[in-house]
Amino acid sequence: MHTRRALSALAVAGALSTALALGADAPLLLTNDDGWKHPNILALYQSLKKLLVDGSKVKPVISAPETDQSGKGGLDPNAKTDVANGVDRDDPAIHWVRSYPVTSARYGLDILGRKTWGSDSPVLVLSGINDYRNTGEQLPSSGTCQNAVFASRRGIPAVALSGVARVPTAKRPDPPEAKSWDEARPVYAELSTKLVGQILGSKDFSEWPKGVWLNVNFPDVGGKCTKAGDFKWVLSQIDMNNLSELRRSAIIRKGAEGRDLEKCNLEDLPIEQEVLKNAPAGSCLVSVSINDSLEGRVEKHLNRDWTSDMDGPGFLPGSPFEKEEKVDWSDMELVGPPVTSEPPHRKEYDEEKYRKEYEEKYRTIAHASLERTKIVKKILDDILSCK
């Protein structure tokens, strides 16, 4: 098994060029942590089916959790693929798995990949589009991001995609001009598809470093930012400082004063929150962070369910609780083994305990080295606002 995985990881870079040379479809795996029926992943799936790379199509396959599993991080306790699963009755390329996000990604690679593409190595793994941003403290507990970490540790290029559009709430107000998800979703899907086209179409794609994954966060859609063409792509870095939210916000505000967010100084990139929260009005900046899953600081927390003792999907204490989605069985066909257990339910959180664990988990994501960042920047150069 380990030999096969090593060989498949080495073959990823050449798989795309071979597929395109033969006029074949380029295989892509789509997953998320919000569930297989979430409209965001379905919109991305439909958009990608229209993408052409050097005249050839991509072949996306969805393998996602049956229900919302937000905040489950990299939980994959049994590391098995023999879990209850099913397929959409109307589209055999859309699958669900009754387990955690990373388990669904593993199923997509180990089972669906071999059935669909004849290999467990798609040319790219996409996770999302998540229905809120994933920055800083959310990354270790985000199933969206940990799916990308998992794939990249197998040697497969991976991208986590997140957006911030949502109906405003008292605890999480959005700008008054921000659009709803119904209006923002097609914009985010188009932007994501453009990014995929750039990655797969780059002559330098074969140089993508093993273990590297992208964390992409889209800003609000609204005001001067209503079409995909209005947005600019900016390199950023994840916030590795373990600071209080109040202190961090003050530092971000101070750092944003006079900073050219599009300068793209690889030795001094703005943090993601600086791009998303402090960009000048109407600048429409998408943050793109280049991260490394092989730094040795990730493994410790991959199999931790961060929602087991808190009331929110991977956010700070006090975040609104999102109830589990009720499953609609009308268009599903159960094809897996009998269900023996369900993922654990959320419990009331102990705030002090959570804050200590929050401080610990916050150090488990690493930004890619300057050398590896330069390689990926070269692949993305044509869409970046800085050259």
Tags for this model:
387 residues, single chain, globular, Stationary-phase Survival Protein Sure Homolog, Chain: A, 17% strand, disordered N terminus
Provide the CATH superfamily.
Survival protein SurE-like phosphatase/nucleotidase
The percentage of residues in β strands lies in: 15-25%
Describe the global form.
Answer: globular
How many domains in all? 1
Describe it for me?
The protein is an alpha/beta fold. It has a single domain (2-380), classed as Stationary-phase Survival Protein Sure Homolog, Chain: A, CATH 3.40.1210.10. 31% of the residues lie in helices and 17% in strands. It is built from nine helices and twelve strands. The protein has helices spanning 2-21, 39-48, 101-116, 143-153, 181-201, 245-256, 272-278, 351-361, 370-380, and strands at 26-31, 52-53, 56-65, 85-88, 94-97, 124-130, 158-163, 212-218, 232-236, 285-292, 332-334, 366-367. Strands 1, 2, 3, 4, 5, 6, 7, 8, 9, 10, 11 and 12 form a twelve-stranded mixed sheet that branches. A hairpin with a 2-residue loop joins strand 2 (52-53) and strand 3. Helix 2 crosses helix 5 (181-201) and helix 3 (101-116) crosses helix 4. The longest helix is centred in the middle third of the chain and has 21 residues, at 181-201. The radius of gyration is 19 Å and the shape is globular. Belongs to the SurE nucleotidase family. This is Uu.00g040980.m01.CDS01. Pfam families: SurE (PF01975). GO terms for molecular function: metal ion binding; nucleotidase activity.
